User: Which sequence fits this backbone?
């Protein structure tokens, strides 16, 4: 099925004109997500899972979001779609502020933004056929007749490399890669502009990962999609992303164009993550393996100052006293690290020139 045919039946996501060209499709400003953890005794613990996060995603762009488990990546993605409530901040998709939307308004807004989850088996109803799972949003939002919905299901399956003959099977009859293709087809049913891929290939073997990544890249080009690609595999993120944002303890500590971040990291946390990427190239340059000491701090009781100061090999006194502010980086992007303004005063340069105290 051609991209033209697929897009021909789409309608404005919010019943309003599209925003002016040149404005990012997704705009996030000061996003905060706080969870209350109950206690049998005493006041509940407040866990700040996402802390003052800001970024944007251009039309047709993929932003990779990386970090350790528990850094707030998945919570950020879910908050963008209002699958979890955010306590402060602003999220705009296609120019529409989502913060005040609820009920039918939010349901209509979600036509334009969808999600592909990590485990394709648990995200598909095992008691429903593939046709029923993919047709559900078509029946709910577009009120198609069953025959029309079935024709669209076949088109969507073909779009992701399957056939109409797969429509009457159940999820357990497919491999993990095929199930993820089905989940992608369902996410595309309503012609969204923005898709959150939350660890969408981490449950797949390496060869299947490559197939799904190539599929996502082809769909982005054909359907003019924008992705937030959340992953812990930095090699995969480098392959698919135009820009990368690095999260630690609920904050974005560095962001910028993919090549700049991977080749010239400006934050110690980014440097440590990149040092763990295996390199099988015969021309590889031996890279120092950097191990961060200890475990990430408790998000309900973060340390004063820089959140990485308990594990950073470059830590200075100022790191324990105040939070670093974002600083522009040579080559594009920003970094929040006192090394850029104090100590070696790198002023946006990569960490290669910093001396370990």
Assistant:
């Amino acid at each position: 099925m051609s991209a033209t045919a697929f897009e021909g039946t789409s309608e404005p996501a919010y019943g309003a004109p599209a925003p002016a060209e040149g404005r990012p499709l997704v705009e996030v400003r000061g996003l905060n997500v706080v969870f209350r953890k109950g206690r049998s005794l005493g006041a509940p613990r407040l866990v700040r899972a996402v802390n003052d996060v800001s970024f944007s995603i251009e039309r047709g762009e993929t932003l990779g979001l990386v970090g350790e488990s528990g850094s707030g990546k998945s919570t950020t993605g879910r908050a963008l779609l209002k699958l979890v409530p955010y306590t402060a901040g602003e999220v705009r998709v296609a120019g529409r502020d989502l913060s005040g939307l609820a009920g039918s308004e939010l349901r209509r807004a979600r036509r334009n933004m969808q999600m592909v989850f990590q485990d394709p088996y648990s995200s598909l109803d095992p008691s429903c056929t593939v046709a029923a799972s993919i047709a559900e949003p078509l029946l709910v939002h577009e009120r198609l007749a069953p025959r029309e919905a079935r024709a669209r299901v076949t088109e969507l399956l073909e779009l992701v490399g399957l056939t109409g003959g797969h429509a009457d099977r159940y999820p357990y009859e497919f491999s993990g890669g095929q199930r993820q293709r089905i989940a992608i087809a369902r996410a595309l049913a309503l012609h969204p502009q923005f898709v959150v891929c939350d660890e969408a290939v981490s449950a797949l073997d390496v060869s299947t990962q490559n197939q799904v990544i190539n599929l996502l890249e082809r769909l982005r080009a054909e359907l003019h999609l924008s992705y937030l690609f959340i992953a812990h595999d930095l090699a995969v993120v480098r392959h698919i992303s135009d820009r990368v944002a690095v999260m630690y303890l609920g904050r974005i500590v560095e962001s910028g164009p993919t090549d700049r971040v991977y080749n010239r990291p400006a934050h110690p946390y980014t440097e440590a993550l990149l040092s763990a990427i295996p390199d099988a190239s015969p021309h590889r340059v031996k890279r120092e393996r950097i191990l961060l000491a200890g475990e990430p701090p408790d998000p309900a009781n973060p340390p004063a100052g820089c959140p990485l100061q308990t594990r950073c090999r470059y830590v200075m006194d100022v790191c324990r006293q105040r939070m670093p502010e974002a600083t522009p980086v040579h080559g594009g992007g920003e970094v929040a690290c006192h090394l850029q303004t104090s100590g070696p005063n790198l002023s946006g340069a990569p960490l290669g020139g910093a001396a370990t105290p």
User: Anything to note?
Assistant: The domain at 3-241 is CATH 3.40.50.300 (Rossmann fold). DSSP finds ten helices and twelve strands in the chain. Residues 1-20 have pLDDT under 50 and may be disordered. The chain has two domains: 3-241, 267-353.
